[in-house]
């Protein structure tokens, strides 16, 4: 089996767990953070279409399993965003940390704003504007801080499995 | 065109194929995948919950003996009070049973209490849920009411092997028949919306016109016992204000819920002893 998508899915599962723990401790405020956008940058910037699509779809299914949304909706949303990113990435800057952080923030914003479309009617209209604004602000702040670390974690985990994404991306047909 | 070429040249067509395949996947298979993936992630949350308990245990170990003695004395006082209440409850229960028999009334549903630790609080922007550390292993059913010392916590929404998900009373998915303290006319309570940095809240509608409440003199509301989920008399919250609704026949208003709801560590699930009665 291709280690690329397995490592990416496991890393995203770790991210979902850490996000859950962070929200558990933020509950008394009550404020929550949404970090799903961090799942996209490595796949979007470095992976080829097939492993990337598999990784995003499975990560989305894992996230959906614990959320009150139709099962598979986040998976399809992540897969669609990944495909769009993959289609335009040759025209975007890809070296350094800035594209990762900016990509994660944009993906996080899109995914956060898409949530009311996935949720059932009573939930979708239940949040106040103040809560949406505060949660979005906190989410973007935490996502921006975590993005470089999470990107490095995924690359190092892939290196342990003998996959060098940076070198692969420079090969003919690669991402860079 | 080979499949590999198709993938390279038609990424959006491939996405469409994936989407179509997912839509055509049988519901049973999707359900199996959902349950499997949830159970795959559950041990991590479980471990974190046990780690927090261990952390609390070690922090309690640092307390002085005098502090522990003081706590034990307070607990002994509380226990004495509870003993008296238990005896009183037993007498009242016996009287209710006698009256039910004499008047040929259907008996009230009975519950056993299952205490469960909170594994994870998930107070998201849109949904308000708890994951608790008991599930099918403790015989919890979907829809069972969940309470704590401050009143209603919510209702069990999903039951897994060793965990269950509780929809909180502050979630808009939860509607409860409520009555004002000292009144018998029911009205509707619904959770949310929940602004940031304040305690959880809900709203009431179809409140009778002669019920009054204001922030200075809030009105306590309790469960009405209708609908077959929550037993009667459990505290929901306090109505802060009431206004005439558009029809002018009833009032609607805002309810403040218990501030401890956001910091729960332990809850009690009421498992019906005779589910067919409900």
Could you characterize what this model shows?
The complex is a heterodimer of chains A (176) and B (278). With 176 residues, chain A is mainly alpha-helical. Chain A is built from eight helices and no strands. Chain A has helices at 3-26, 40-46, 49-64, 73-88, 98-118, 121-124, 129-160, 165-170. The two termini of chain A are 24 Å apart. Chain B has a domain at 175-260: Thrombin, subunit H (Beta Barrel). Helices cover 34% and strands 30% of the residues of chain B. Chain B has four helices and twelve strands. Chain B has helices at 3-9, 11-24, 27-61, 65-103; strands spanning 111-123, 128-132, 145-148, 151-159, 164-168, 175-180, 187-191, 201-207, 219-223, 235-244, 251-257, 266-272. In chain B, the strands form two sheets. Chain B has a six-stranded antiparallel barrel with strand order 1-2-5-4-3-12. The model of chain B has no long low-confidence stretch (mean pLDDT 90). At the A-B interface, helix 1, helix 3, helix 4, helix 6 and helix 7 of A face helix 2, helix 3 and strand 1 of B.
